[in-house]
Every structure is written in C-alpha cells, then in structure tokens.
Amino acid sequence: MTPRINASRVMIAVSLVLLGSLGVAAAGGRGIPLFAPFDNPTGEARTVSTADGPDRHNLFFEDLGTNGRRCVTCHMPTDGWTIVPAHVQARFEMTQGRDPLFRTNDGANSPLSNVSTVDARRTAYSMLLSKGLIRVGMPIPPGAEFTLEAVEDPYGFASAAEMSLFRRPLPSTNLAFLSTVMWDGRETFPGQTIAFDLADQANGATVGHAQATRSLTEAERAEIVEFESSLFTAQVRDGEAGQLHAAGARGGPKILSDQEFYPGINSSSDPTGRPVDPRVFTLFDRWGTAHGRLSAARRAVARGEALFNERKFGTKGSTCSGCHNAPNAGSNSNGFLSNLGLSDESRRAPDMPLYTLRCTATGVVTRTTDPGRALVTGRCADIGRFKVPTLRGLAARAPYFHNGLAATLDDVVQIYEERFGMGLTAEEKRDLAAFLRAL
After folding, report:
1. Is residue 214 part of a domain?
2. For labelling, which of 1, 72, 139, 258 has a CA lying 20 to 30 Å from the CA of 47?
3. For residue 26, is pLDDT > 90?
4. What is the mean pLDDT of residues 171-194?
5. Using one digit for the tens of pLDDT, what is the confidence trace for 362-400?
6. Please, how many CA atoms are within 13 Å of residue 281, restricted to the half-sphere of its CB?
C-alpha cells in the first residue's frame, strides 16, 4: 500500500507537536486538540477518554523536572502517544536541536556527546532522529549469570557499568490492556497492581528523563496515571478501506474503550475458567463478504484478521493470537516476554552497539544489541526477551519493535515470516499488513 499523507494536515500536526513540546501552549499541551483525528501514513487515528472532561491541566502536561521535558514531550497525541521520526526531525529543524526532546542524558547516542553546534547535535541525536529511539542506560545487575566479554559501541560510551540500549518510547495510551510495564518489564512488580507499576514508572520517568530533583508525591503519580489510563487510541480511517467502523466493522477507539480485559483473560490461567478462544480479533468479521466501492480493501482486512487468528506455524502450531491473546487489543494478558531474535547480531544495524555476553555456568556466548529482560533478572534465559505490546493504533507509531527494526507493518510481517516460516503467500502478507494497519 502506498502511504497517503495530507500535507497540510501533517504540517498542522507538526505544529501541534511543537506547541506541546516547547510549552508555547499553556502548560505544554492544553492548546492541543487531544481528541481530534490525526493523519498518519495510511489513514487517521483518534483518541477518546473515559474520564469525565479530561483535565488539560493534568501533570502529564506540566514541567516537573529541570530540563524542560514533560510527559507529553515523548508521548504526543499526534503520534499515537509516542514519537515518530518525521515529527522528531521537524522539531529538530524548527528549533535547531534545542527542543526539550533533545537532551544528552538519554536523547543523545552518548551522554558525553558534543552538542555545541547544530551539526554536532544532528550527529549526537542521530538515533532519535532516524528511528525515534531513546537511549536507556542500564548496568549488568549484581549476581548476573553472565558477564560482559566485549563491547562494540560506535559512540564510545557503553560498558558493564552502563550499557546503552536504544528503545522506542512505548505509547501512553491503551494502558488498560497492560500486564507488563516497559519493554523489559522492569516496572512490573510482583504482587502489585498495574496502577502501582505505572505510578512508579511515572516517577522514574520524571526523575530520569526529565531530570527532576525530587520524586513525585503519591498524589502526583496518581494524577498522571489517572489521565493516561483514561486514554484509548485506534485507527479510525484507512486510506483504502475507509471508515473502520462502517458496514458492520467495529474499529476505532470508542468500541475499544468498552473492551473487557483483566490479567489472564483468554489464557490457560484465565481466573474465570473460560476456555481460550484463538479468535482474538473479531473487529472486521462482517467485512469478509463486503460489497461496494471499498469491498476489495475491506475483504483484505478481514482475510488478514482471519490469518492473525487462525494461521498455524512452527512445530507447536502457534498462531499470532497465541501471544497477542487479549481480545481485540492484542497485548498479552499474562505478561509474557518473548525472544523474536530482534536483537541478534545477525540483525544488527551499524549504528547499534553490540555486546558479547558469556553465561558463566555454560560458557555459551551471545552477541546482542540489547539483552532485554536479562538486565532486569540477570538470567541467561532472559537474554533478548521483550514484552508483547498492545497492537491498537499501530499505523500511527512506526517504526516497530523495541528497537525500531521494522520501518513499516509490511516489514513487521516479513520479519515474522523469516522468524517462524509462516508460509505466507505474497497476497497473505499484504492482507495481514492491511489488518494491522486497520487496528
């Protein structure tokens, strides 16, 4: 599918991004029409809130740190509540790289980067500009089952004391379907609720990303989490299939906001005892027999939905819906983290650091761009494992996966094909991508 972008609306969206980030609008975001539809490369996404008159004075939009950043700086409503490279680049050019998004503590390839000139800043923030990646600095945890044998860091900074991990900011919407917080689950605490986890994450982001000099109070944390948890975002219009709630379809954020979810839903450990239903997505069932001007595109979306639910692959007969098991949301209701090989040396881009890890008990050597969950648990078995993300609103927030490896949803499908040998034909790949774009 050829991306279709309304140039004038993109400029409006970019302007709104800048208003929110720079604080030109009062409180860094109160001038942004949060719940307006926003164009993306293949259609239009929209957000709704379940709150009674969402408060634009919420601390989500306030400057709580020392470097000018706010939650909205990295979680823009125009970008599916994350950031996308095109808008990051626009912010850089308009501000010559001085927008609060561009800070050396985590926005630069190294915290020691030279940012004295525009050209230096363009080089220093290249990962953020090209892929929308933020640098996460994490050490190898005490007592880990592995050691760091070697580091190849193009930016000359990473070590066992602080490994540089480049990751996409996760969207601060559709949080009602979470069972794991952060790509590596480091903000998921045993025995605690998701609300507790998100509150801790909000504090960590304020102290870390915004470089605040104090921790947030319990009330401040709760205010941010309440706002975020009220948001639901989904695609509402597809450039080829049209309105995604038309002709019996049930796309869009309003229906999503009513979707049932609880930990363990639609899994073997479902606390209600309900049997597992592999038909996780049922949004576009009615489009299987679509007629009319948009019928071909709508039937393709319906076929893609069926492939997602039903196509078996691998020795265990897995399906896409096996991991993405939360009904009509696509997250994993059990907090499962998986290794898709996305950080393997074979997929390393030249701008990514490469780490050589040796498991002390077995001597097994792994070369990876990001150890993932292993830097939280210290376990060799967790090297390369990351959370299963929620799938709604995908079209608004390319690139995909934790490291931005896939530029488009067609690339996402191809990576799964290569990883699992799904046996998809060219038409089936197009259908599956069409379905993902419609979410």
Report:
1. yes
2. 1
3. no
4. 97
5. 999 999 999 999 999 999 999 999 999 999 999 999 999
6. 33
Answer whether residue 316 is part of any domain: yes
Q: What is the pTM of this model?
A: 0.93
Give domain status of residue 98, yes or no. no
The mean pLDDT value of the chain amounts to 93
Domain residue limits at 280: 7-84+168-338+384-437
Q: Considering only CA atoms, which of 332, 284, 325, 280 is closest in space to residue 304?
A: 284
Statement: residue 318 has pLDDT above 60: yes
Question: How many domains does the chain fold into?
Answer: 1
Residues near 159 by beta carbon (within 8 Å), at least 6 away in sequence: 148, 151
pLDDT confidence of residue 123: 98
pLDDT tens sequence across 98-117 = 999 999 999 999 999 999 99
Backbone angles phi, psi at 177, to 5 degrees: -105, 15
- The pLDDT of 240-257, averaged and rounded, is 98
Q: For every residue of the chain, which 3-state class applies, written as one string?
A: CCCCCCHHHHHHHHHHHHHHHHCCCHHHCCCCCCCCCEEECCEEEEEEECCCCCCCCCHHHCCCCCCCCCHHHHCEHHHCCECCHHHHHHHHHHHCCCCCCCCCCCCCCCCCCCCCCHHHHHHHCHHHHHHCCEEEEECCCCCCCEEEEEEECCCCCCECCEEEEEECCCCCCCHHHCCCCCCCCCCCCCCCCHHHHHHHHHHHHHHHCCCCCCCCCHHHHHHHHHHHHCEEEEEEEECCCEECCCCCCCCCHHHHHCCCCCCCCCCCCCCCCCCCCCCCCCCCHHHHHCCCCCHHHHHHHHHHHHHHHHCCECCCCECHHHHCCCCCCCCCCCCCEECCCCCEHHHCCCCCCEEEEEECCCCCEEEECCCECHHHHCCHHHCCEEECCCCCCHHHCCCECCCCCECCHHHHHHHHHHHHCCCCCHHHHHHHHHHHHCC
